[in-house]
Amino acid sequence: MLYVETIKYGFYVITHPLDGFWGIRRENRGSLAAAFTFVALTILTLTIEKQNTGFLFNMNRLSELNVLVDIFTVLLVYVLWCVANWCTTSLMEGKGRMKDILIAIGYALLPIILIRLPMVLMSHMITADEGTFYYVLGTISYLWTGLLIFTGTMTIHQYSITKTIVTIAITVVAMGILMFIGLLFFNVIQQMLTFVMTIYRELRFR
């Protein structure tokens, strides 16, 4: 499929998730390029939201915002989820490939883009008393994305509802384990570099 067609297919996935994710798994109707585009647009959306939401609804301190942290956070969660889910489903007879997981999760982020980006404009047009509509829309964006992730996991790996719930729970735990291992690895590397630099300084000044 052409890139533009795979982008358009994202709108079919979010409105017909069972058929949509089945098409990704069996008919190759999605693409990594489109999925990564949706991830990039999600990062852009959340960054714009933090920096440009109306002051009545913006709880962030603009002086403390860091775009690089936002980019790293979204990418880290995306990669961790996909890797942890692949590891988990490989042990639980899942049918999905890593490519399928990357595409499915990327497409599942589309509601965040479609809802939260207009919310930025909306935040400048409503009063505090009308804020209920703003918060309801924000909740819907995350619930919709969560439902798509659930449906995508169930469809791609051909799981039952119960097995999907268990798989998602294990995936979250696996993400924590992977993050702990990563932090431990970087800590060991840092200590090794510090040790090498200490020895280098001692040899240099003798």
Which percent bin holds the helix content?
Answer: over 70%
**Distinct helical segment count:** 8
Termini distance?
A: 66 Å
Class per helix and strand makeup: mainly alpha
What's the overall average pLDDT, rounded? 91
- How big is the Rg? 21 Å
* Number of domain modules: 1
Q: Mind summarizing the main beta sheet?
A: none
Low-pLDDT runs:
none
**Got a strand count?**
0
Q: What spatial form do the alpha-carbon principal axes imply? A: globular
Q: What proportion strand?
A: under 5%
The helix-strand sequence is HHHHHHHH
Fill in the keyword field for this structure:
8 helices; 80% helix; 0% strand; 206 residues; mainly alpha; globular
Task: Tell me about this structure.
There is one protein chain. The chain is mostly helical and 206 residues long. It contains eight helices and no strands. α1 packs antiparallel against α2 and α3 (32-52) runs parallel beside α6 (110-122).
